[in-house]
Amino acid sequence: MIFTVEISCYPLSSDYLRIVDSFIVKMNEYDGIKAITSYSSTLIIGESDVVFPALQREIERTFTEEGKASFVMKVLGGDLSESVDITPYA
To answer: Which residues form the signal peptide (predicted)?
Structure first.
């Protein structure tokens, strides 16, 4: 099944931009994952058997190599990279 994970990384470090960038770059290196970055989060999209092990490895890597950080995630079913028309609800 395809999942979309919206994830934000908040390193507890003055060098936070480098740490966030490193996490995003690593996620983009996985085959079968589409990573779409915006100002406050990144969408990680792909099959569950690819997405979740990749997230586990890269979150653990961040903790091991960079120290303390907070990750905030939302997990949604399906590929939610396309816009949803909310005009009828506006």
So the answer is: none
Are 80 and 3 spatial neighbours (Cβ–Cβ below 8 Å)? no
* pLDDT class of 90 with cuts at 50, 70, 90: low
Q: Is 43 left (phi over 0), alpha (psi -120 to 50) or beta?
A: beta
DSSP readout, 25-42? HHHHTSTT-EEEE-SS-E
Number of continuous H segments (helices) and E segments (strands) in the chain: 2, 4
Please report, for the chain, the start and end positions of each structural domain, with discontinuous segments joined by +.
2-89
Please compute, for residue 35, the number of CA atoms within 13 A of its CA located in the half-sphere on the CB side: 19
pLDDT at 66 over 80: yes
CATH code for 2-89? 3.30.70.930
Question: How far is Cα 53 from Cα 38, in angstroms, rounded to an integer?
Answer: 23
Classify residue 57 by its DSSP letter.
Answer: H
